[in-house]
Amino acid sequence: MSNAHRVAVIGAGPAGLMAAEVLTERGIGVDVYDAMPSFGRKFLMAGKSGLNITHAGERATFLDRYICNDERLKSAIERFDASDIVAWMRGLGIEAHKGPTGRVFPNMMKASPLLRAWLQRLSDQGAVFHTKHRWEGWVENGALKFMTPGDPKTVSYDATLLALGGASWRRLGSDGAWTKIMAAKSVRLSPFGPSNCGFLVNWSDRMRQDQAGQPVKACELSVRTNDGVQRSRSEFVITERGVESGGVYMLSAALRTTLQQQGEAVLNIDLCPDIDVQDLAKRLAKPRGKKSFSNHIRKVANITGPKLALIYEFIDRAVLNNPDKLAAFIKHIPVPVIGHVPIDEAISTSGGVAWSAISDDYMLKNLPGVFCAGEMLDWDAPTGGYLITACMATGRAAGLGLLNWLSRD
Q: Cβ(165)–Cβ(352) under 8 Å?
């Protein structure tokens, strides 16, 4: 393989930058392009309150978090997993910090120092960066076409790696506009869907006014689908429109699929997951005396604030005086979900380039020399470090695939 090769990486998120790192380490000349004025904008936003870059759980449990109909995704992650990401950060001079639930962060928590160190290393390895270059496909001779603040620009390369993201957070650069270019080239695509997003609930006015913004902690959420029951043991947040945050994001695929199949879905909430229903009924049956219902349930079951509001929102008042029925309700509050927020408000998206459209080396079968990585591929995962891990892992796999293709010259 000649070091005279030069390739383009289009998209400067974690997938594109990891691919660029693989290539520049092997002496390949790389131009990295992004439509935005600066690199890694979604990466930086993800790390605004702490960059959860990966998760240190057991490998089998880790891989089970991914929804994908192709084993190549899991294979890529197995070859570049959480331990590899921790070692990679250390190579940038940044140690890892593991939270109590296994989430892994850079020790300074923020994304910006990590991104700066990464870009500096890429620059030292010879990568050339181009901002404000929006890719618009190819011209007749196969050269890449870019719109820039000045005139349109065309550039030819030995190969191209696309890491253009999904279709959410348009203001940060992921607008899904590339799908039109791919469709024109007969690349098979799966429709985009919102993932890790908020869902809509028709709250009462009182619920919206009094509880919007309130977290509901120490609970278990579940959704019944055609394939069984999906569960999430994590807190969530009540919003004016419905529900969102960690526990809900873990179930976003199940909720989205059920909404598509049935037109509606039910999010079941167990407010006391550490107490079985019989024990809870016994606690609720204790004499109340002159205490109000609110004070009684606070004392015997530690239910207050938004948890109590959820009970009042959905319960038949006649059940309040029946300990057995009340306990059963508290363990299984059915919240009707009527839809999801717009796709652009989702943290990530499902859908994208179908796995059947790419080779084992991540090259588009219809477009020799063009490779894909990251969120533009058709897979799904919850927040918690899983998204960035898969982006980096597929970026690495696609970069290695591109190297393998160039070596055939």
A: no
* DSSP summary character for residue 234: S
- Is the distance from CB of 70 to CB of 188 less than 8 angstroms? no
Cα separation, 354 vs 182, in Å, equals: 11
Three-state SS string across 2-37, please? CCCCEEEEECCCHHHHHHHHHHHHCCCEEEEECCCC
CB 362 within 8 A of CB 352: no
Global confidence as pTM: 0.91
In 185-342, where does DSSP find H-type helix?
A: 205-211, 246-249, 252-262, 277-284, 293-301, 305-314, 323-330
d(CA 176, CA 365): 20
pLDDT in tens, 171-184: 888 899 999 999 99
The single-letter code of the amino acid at 357 is A
Domains and CATH numbers, the chain: 6-191+351-406 (3.50.50.60), 199-340 (no CATH)
Q: How far is CA 88 from CA 15, 80, 91, 111, 323, in A?
A: 14, 10, 5, 14, 55
Task: Express each pLDDT in 87-121 by its tens digit.
Answer: 999 999 999 999 888 899 999 888 999 999 999 99
* Strand partners of residue 216: 236
Structural contact between residues 391 and 374, judged by C-beta atoms closer than 8 angstroms: yes
Half-sphere exposure for 65 (CA within 13 Å, toward CB): 23
Q: Which of 246, 197, 206 is nearest to 349 (CA)?
A: 197
Token reading at 198? 């908020």
Specify the residue for token string 């006014």: 209
